[in-house]
């Protein structure tokens, strides 16, 4: 696979939102927005930036057969679901909800400060849907790989100091999302909310321009159906 890199700037994300006090920016086709040329990348089918004022939230809603990973940028996210989980997710934590055969959950800002989080949905491979599952990894260490069940996808969290370099995974599909600061990949600089979609990634690295935080998905398969 020849290497191709495409940059989606923060301002090019599609605006959404559900309810008062919620601001959403979609990277892919989502909800009422559909672009047939932008439905997924590798197994990643959603990367939503969510901003919730205190007291705002998403009412209970269902999911099925989807891996949902959430990264809090600032504030606190209160999560409740039908598996019995009730947690508060803070910056530095990785939250994973495996919807499996079906789950319902709510998400809200029950705190006193604004909440910003990035939520990423990945489609698992073919096969029977499993029972839903939930976990939170508290304070995940920099560079620790986080692999998703039923997918060939791994999340890498990188927090870099000015000038620090990090190798990007060699993989058919790599998605790098800038959370904070700025990082340069080849001749492109990512700033907060920007993302690089790289097909056929090999021998690439990111270099921080000031302190930076990146979420990097390493993906080795596209969704299978049937």
UniProtKB/TrEMBL annotation:
InterPro entries linked to this entry: Pirin, Pirin_N_dom, Quercetinase_C, RmlC-like_jellyroll, RmlC_Cupin_sf
Limits of the Pirin N-terminal domain: 20-122
Family matches, as Gene3D superfamilies: Jelly Rolls (2.60.120.10)
Domain Quercetin 2,3-dioxygenase C-terminal cupin: 159-219
One Pfam family named in its UniProt record: Pirin_C_2
Top-level taxonomic group: Bacteria
CDD domains: cupin_Yhhw_N
Family note: Belongs to the pirin family.
PANTHER family from the UniProt entry: QUERCETIN 2,3-DIOXYGENASE (PTHR43212:SF3)
Name recorded for this polypeptide: Pirin family protein
Organism: Streptomyces javensis
